[in-house]
Amino acid sequence: MRKLVVMILCATLAFTQSFAQNRTVTGKVTDDKGAAIAGASVVAKSSKGGTTTAADGTFKLTVPNTVKVLTISSLNFVQKDVTIAANNTANASLTASAADALDEVVVIGYGAAKKKSDVTGSVVSVNAERLQNRPSANMFDALQGQVPGLQVYNSSGEPSATPSVRLNGVGSLGASSTPLYVLDGIPIDPGTMVSLNPEDFESVTVLRDASSTSIYGSRAANGVIYLTTKKGKLNSSKITIQSQYGVSNLVKPTLDLFNNFMNTKQLTDFWVATGFRTPAQVSSLLSQFNADTKWYQQYYKENIPTQQIDLNISGGGGKTTYYISGSAFKQEGLTYRSDFERYTMRANLNTTVNNWFKLGVNLSGGYDERQTNPYGSNSTNRGLSLLRQPFYSAYDPNGVKYPDIIPGGNFYNPDYLADKIQSLGTNVQFNPSGFIQLNPFAGFTLKSQAGMEFYDFRSAGKTLPSFLGSLNNGSVSESFTRGTTKTITNTAEYTFKLKQRNSFTLLAGQEFISNNTNGFSGSSTGQTDDRLVLISAGPTNFQASSFMNEYAFASYFGRLNYNLDSKYFVDLSVRNDQSSRFGRALRGATFYSAGLLWKAKSEKFLQNVKWIDNLVIKGSIGTSGNSSIGNYQSLATVGTNLYNSAPGWGVSSAGNPELSWETQRQINFGVQTTLFKKLNIDVEFFDRVTSNMLISVPFPWTSGFSSVTSNVGSLKNSGFNANVNYDFIKKKSSFLNVYVNLGYVEQKVTELFQGKQYWIIPNTGVCWAVGQPVSYFYPIWAGVDPANGEATWYRPNPNPDKIVETTKTSTTNAFNTAGLQQNTGINRFAPFNGGFGFSAGVREFSVSADFSFSKGKYMINNDRYFFENPNQFTGFNQSNTVLDYWKKPGDQTRFPRYGVQFTQFDTRLIEDASFMRLKALTFAYDFSKTLLNKQKVLTGAKFYVTMRNIWTLTNYSGPDPEVDTNVSLGANPNTSQVAVGLNLSF
Amino acid sequence: MKMKMKKLLIKNMVAFAAILTLGSCEKKLDLYPFDSIELSQSFQTAKDAATWNTGLYADLRGRSAGSYNISQDVQADQLNATLDFGNRNGNPHRWGTSFLSDDGALSGAWQGYYFALRNVNTCIAGFETIKTTTAAEAAQLNKFKGDAYLARAFYYSELILRFAKPYDRATAATDLGVPLVLEFNINARPARATVQKVYDQILSDIATAKLNLASTTGTAGATRFTIDVVTALEARVRLHMQDWTGAMTAANTIISSNRYPLLNTLTNLNNMWTNDLATEVIFQCAVVRQTEQAPTNSIYLGFNGATGKFTPDFIPTVDFVNMFAASDLRRQVYLRQLPVIIQGVNYPTMWCVNKFPGNPALFTGAFTNYQHAPKLFRAAEQFLIYAEAAANAGGASEALALSTLNTLRAARGLTALSGLTGAALMTEIRNERTRELAFEGFRLFDLKRWKLGFTRGTPQDLAAINTTPATSYHQINVAANNPQYVWGIPTYEININTNLVQNPGW
Questions:
Q1: Cα–Cα distance, A381 to A379 (Å, whole number)
Q2: Assigned fold of B46-286+375-466+482-496
Q3: Where are chain A's structural domains?
Q4: What does the pLDDT look like over A222-251, one tens digit per residue?
C-alpha cells in the first residue's frame, strides 16, 4: 500500500509541473471509416503531457507552444504522428493494425498490453485460430508442438481428459510442474480448460522466463499460460456459425498391440507344449468353446461420432463492444462409459463510460456431463481385457451377443457392465470477471479487477438392482463438490516520457486470492427396482459425509518498464507473496526479475544491412516461486476415526513448521531475427535452478510417517528453445510457410535430502541421483542364457555408494528388485519435444499439417508384465511374443525356459516411447474469395476436413506412447478423429 | 483544467483505496483444516483422553485381519494357489526369489504396526499431561494408560514374531530384534534392539497394563481391553519365550476363570465364525455395519453373487483337510465343500477355507462383504498354550497337558487321547494347534519356533492350481533353517535408516 501511495504522489507531482507558454489543441480521432475511437492516447511529441480521447473520439490537450506534433495511438491501430494545424486542431484517422500485427500485442502480467517486440521477456503468443476447429474438447490438445519448450501430453483417450503441460522441463521433484493458467487476468485451474469453448479464445500467450513471470511470483515457477478471450470490434458486427462432425477410432500402434495376441490354436498349442494342459484336456475344452475372439473388439468401439457447433456474434457500436457465443460439443470415447458433452455460453462486454472511466465484464458459463471408463489398471474389464481367452465367444451360436455373462469365461460382457453400473459426472462452470478502469489523466490508469472461478461438480454412481452381481440390491451414491476461487486485483499504471527519448511505465498492484473447496456425499443401498434408484429408495446403508478446505494468497507487486529511443529496453519487477500454506513465520517471500532487450536492427550500423530485417537480442534473470502442494501441510494434526460408534483420534500429519516456498532462479538469453524477409529465427537459452524444493521427504516408517513435506534439495534444468519458420511463398493468392519448433532440456539433480547421493523412489523405478537427470533405476536384463535357458541380470556395483555407476561385470539368475536395481542411464523425462509442419494455400484451397514429436521419452510398460508372463498368468491369453522361449541348449530366445518367470520388472519393460504424431491435418476450401461476392448474406464460408492423430510413428509396444507416466498400466489410448466442418459468417 | 483533474484524481484515489481495503486482509491467511485439529491442542481434558483411547482401538481393528494374517498363512504349508489367484499374495507363497525385502507383505506389516505405535506412544506421553478433576476421571485415565501400554506390548509381540529369530534364551541377548520406538519422534533413526530387549519391553508394558487394568474384569466378546486380555497376551508371549511356567500360569488364569467356556456344538461353533457368537472370545474388535469395517480375508472364498459360485485365490491342501477327523466339528465350520469355478472349470465340491465367510448382520449388500468381528484372543488358544507349555515343562505337567488337550478335543467333537507322553504328546498338541488356529495367522510362526521345515501338502486337484514351477508351488520344500522364516527388514526402511541391519538371506 505504501508503495502505491508513493507512486501516486510521484505521478501527481509529475503532472502538476506547469509550463511556460501553452496552447490548447482540440481534435478528433477516428478509424479509417470515420468512426470515433474512444480512449486513444494523445501525447505531445518531444514533451510531456497527454490525454485520452472521449467516447466521441474528441480530445482537448494543453501543450507548450514548442510542441508541433502529437502522437496518437490506440490498441489495435497503427500509431500515428499528427502535426498540429495552425488553428490548433489535430485530427487523426488511424488504420487498423494488420491481422498478423495483432499477434504482436501481448499481456505480460498486469497492466496494459504491450507490443510484443518491446517485451524483454521470453513470450510466445499463438493465435488461437491455429488451435480451433479441432475434434477435441480441450484446446491444449492442439497446442502440442506449437510452442518451443512447451510439452503437452495427452495421457488418455478419454474425451474429457486434461493434458499434462510442462514448460522448459520438470521444475520440481515434489511440487507440481504445471504452469500457472491465467484467463483474462484471473488464475484458473488447468482442469477448467476442458469446460471452456476453444472457439472463444483470441490468443494463448506462453510466458517462459523470469522477466515475464516473476510478476506472478508465488505460483509462476513453471511458467505462465495467459489466455485471452475474444472481444468485439467497434463499428463492426459479425455472426459466425461453426459446425463439425467426425468419427473416432483407435490408432495404428494400439491396434498393432491388440492384434499381437495369440489366437485359440496358438494359445492351446502353447498350453500343451508347456505342459500346462494335456492334449485331452485341450480337446475337451475346445469341444465346449472353440471361438476365436479378438476381445479388444468387444471392449473398444469403432467409428464413434464426435460433433460440435459454435455460434458467436461480435461487434460494437458507439462506446461498447460485445462478443457473445454459445457452443455445444459431444464426443464419446471408444470404451464403454466414456463420454463428454458440453454446452457453453460467454458474453464479453466492454464499454467506455466517459473519457476517464471504462469497464468490462466477461461472463462465461458452461455445463457438461462426463463419464470415464473406470476399468483401467489391473482390470480385465478393459485395461487387461487382452488377457481374455480367445476360445470364449461374445456371441451365441446364432450370432446374438450374450446379454450379460460370457459362458465359460464367467465374466461380464462390457456393455452389460456399462448399463448396470453407471457413473455420471456433471459440472457447472462459471468464470465471471469484471474490471473498472479509471484514467484520471493521460498515461495514468487505475484498474480494479475481480474475478471468480466457480464450479459445482456432481457425480452420481449407481449399481442397478437388476445387476446380476447384486441382484435386487442396488446401490446409489451422489457426491457434490463446490469450488470457488476469488481473485481481486488492483493496479495503478503510469506511462510517461522524459526528454522524449526515455519512456517509462510504472506499475504497482495488489492481489488477494482465496479458495474454498467443499463437498458432501450421500449413499444408500438396497434398491430393488431399476426405475426407482434414488438414494431415498434404498432402505439400507444410509451414509453421508462432507469435507472442506481452503487456501489464500496475498500479494503486492511493482514493475518498471523503461526504454531509451525504443532501442534499449529494461524491465524490472518485484513481487511479495504470502500464502496460507506455509508456517506463519515463513509465509512470505519476495521475487524479482530484470530483463534487457536490444533492438539491434535499429542501430545505424545495421540499418543498411539489407538482408537483416530484424535483429533483437534479449536477456533476463529473476526468481519465482512454487507453492503447488496440498493445504495445511505445515501443521501437525490429529484426525478422526470411529470405533464402536464412538469418535476416536489419531495423529494424521506430522506437520512441518519450517515449511516455506520452493524458489526458482531462471536466466534466459535469446536472439530473434528475420532474414531475407522470409526466414524467422527465434532461439533462446535458459537455465532454471530450483531450490528448497517442496518434496515429500521419506522418513523411516518407525517414525510413524512415511514422508513429511519439506524444503530440500535443488534441481537444474537448462536447455534451449527454437522456432524457425520460412516463407517459401508469400503472395496474395498463394502461400507456403514451413515451421519447426524445438525445445531441449537437460535436467540435473544437484542436491537431495538427508545428505543422500541418491534416492530410489519405492515402486516407481525412478531415482533421483545427484549429478544425474531423474532416471530409471531398475534391474538390468542380461538376456537368456542359451546353455540352460535361465534368465540373467547384471549385478549392480558391489559398492552400494557407487550404485549410480553401472558396471555390468557379472550376472545372476536370482531376480531381486531391490537387490538388482541400478542406474539404467535412461532418462525419465524426454529431453526433446517439439513440432513441425507447414501451411500452404492456393486461391481458395489451403492445407496445413502439424506434427508433434517427443524424443528420448521412456516408460515402463507394465502391461507386458501381464501380457508376457505365461507362468504368472497361466490360463490367460498372452502376447504371441511368448512363443519365443528357450527349449533346448543353444536356443537364442527372448524368454527363458518355461518354469522360469518369463517377465520380471527389469529393463526389458523400459521402452522407448518417443513418438511422432500427425497431430492435425486440415484441408480447407474458403468460399469467401469468389462465390461470396455474388450474394450479400454471407461474408465468409469455409469448408474443411480435419484429422487428428491420424498417423503415429513409435517403437513403443504398449497401447499408447503419449501417456505421461513412469509406469504405464491399462492406459486408455489416444484416439484418432476424422471430421468435416463448415464455418459460415454473416 | 488542472484543478478539475486534481479533484478527479482525489475522488478516484478514495474510491480505489476503498477497493484495496476490501481486498487485503492478513487474517485470511491463518487457515486451519476442517477435518483435523492441531496436535498441540489435543491433550487437554479427560474427554480428549477418551477420544484418543477410542482411536487406538480403531487402529487395532485396522491391523486385526486381512494381510496381517494372510501373508504368513499363504507362506506356510496348508494352502495352494488356484489358477485364478492372479498372483495376489503370490510372493510369500512361493518363497525364494519372488519373496523379497521390498515385498508389500512384510513392509505392510512393519509399516502398519509402527504407525499404530506412533499413536500409542503419542497417547502414553500425552496422557501424562492431562489433569483430571475427579476420582472417576483419574480412574478412567488410568485405564486408558493401561490400554495404551497393552496395545504397545501387542504390536511389539507381533513385530518380533515376524522380523526376528524365535526367542532363544542362549542367544536372545545378541539376536537382533526390532527397533524399540517408545516415543513419537519424527527424526529418530533407531537401531534394532536385541530380541531380549524387545521381549523385556513387552513384559514391562504388560506389567504396567496389568496394574492399570486390574479392576477391568474380563467378559466374553469384550471389544475393549480387560485384565483377561493382558493375561492372554502374557500367556502367548511367555510361550514364545519358552517360559513354560509363566505361560502355564497365565493361560490357566483364563482357563480356570470359566468366563470363556469352549463351544461344543456344531451350531455354536458355526455361530462363532458366521454370526460372531462371542462365548469363547476374550477380545474381538468391534465392527459396525457399513460405517466401521475391518480388513477381510475374502481371498479364501471369492464369492460371485451373480453365479452363486466361488473363485478362491487359495484352497486348502488335501493333507490339511485330512487332519480333521470326520467327527471333528471344525471340519464343517473351518472348512467347507463349495461349488468352485476356476478358469471356467467347475469343481462342485472343492474344499475351501470357511473361517471368514462374513457375518450376515454386517452385510451391506445382498452378498457377503466378509465382515466379521476379528477375534484376536480366543480361549481355545489359551488351552493350547497351556498344553504346549505343560508338555514342554515335562514331568508331572505332561498329564496336565494331556487333560487340557482332551478338554479342547472333547469340545470340538474328538475322542480323548490317553497315555501320551513326550514327542507323541507334543505331536498331538501341535496338530491340535494347527487345526484349531488355522488361518488366524499362527501357523508360520509356530513352524518357525518349533524349528520345523515343511513340504507343502498334496493339492486337492492339480488342474485347479498353479503348478509352475512345482517347487515354488505345491511341491515347495522349505528347510527348518530357511532364512525367509525370519522376514527381511523392508528395503525402504534399510535405505532410509542406515542404523538398521538386514536379516541374513535378504
A1: 5
A2: 1.25.40
A3: 21-97, 100-235
A4: 999 999 999 999 888 999 999 999 999 999
